[in-house]
Amino acid sequence: MRLESFLLPLAVSAAVVERQLGGAKVAGITKLTPEVNPKATRQVTRFGPLTVKGKSAGGDSGQQNWIWTIRDGLCRNCTVLKGHVGLANVDGTPVSPNNDVYIHHILTFDTTKKQKSFLSGCASGAAGLGGAKFIGSGEDNNNVAVWYTARDGKSNNGFHIGSSDSFMMNIDLVSYHANTKQIYLTMDMEYLPGLQGADARETLLSVTGCGVPSIKISQTGPTNTTSGKYTFTEDGTILGAKGHLHAGGEKMVMYINGKFACESKAMYGGAKGENAIDEMSLCTTSGIKVKKGDVMTMTAEYDVSKHPVRHESHGMGAGMADIMGMFDLIFAAHS
Residues of the signal sequence (predicted)? Predict the structure, then answer.
């Protein structure tokens, strides 16, 4: 995917919301019992607070964006097995579309770490956008953890973090709440000491990234838009795959060499009747083995007659919200 095609939605957001820059402040770290590997360490770091403006503040307060640099609060010289990013109220209760704030996107990058794509051609994706893609969220809520290793805990593959790596985070939230409120961003990580196993790589690929101009929608019923071809450049396993759609989206489907591989379905909820995706299911939980030269395509299915497209109500972005169809892939090469 061309870099500019990935940046476009962020550029649109920047035009209609207040963008805030700064360093992430660590508000606290809590140790928890590990879930993947009993030898691992698990911690939840709380960053913030974020002041989310309510609709009563006027202007473009419904959708807001923050760009943070992160230098503290994460493990160092470690291998991350699993992670989850979320939002919490001041009292520690989770923030979700059901209480008027949902995640448009949270993107995290290890800006020190550079890694090559495991897919060829135009499929550079978000792997090279400012560094290596790390734990984030790309749907309206984030109830599913990011896995960088096998789920049975028998593998020590994971995301490698060096001793002095720096991180950048782009946070884009949509608020339907009437009043301004403070919330915190949380990052739950389970990790092993040292750099162990294969270094898992993550990328975000768009259906429109390989010559497909736009995602098709119709007011009369379901539509399908299929991507161009993405070729794997090495043997490995797709450890995880999760779709990213906006309101109206039904599912993302993956094909390997023209055969069905898995699908990630949208589940709807949202605040006070808002048409928001509450969760995207995982496309695979057991892993998909691929070989060098295998070809992947993906299809985005929308049905706006069933789930109307969300519209922006104010600012330069007033009108129909952006339509997206993406897969977030996590890959570990075979040794």
Answer: 1-19
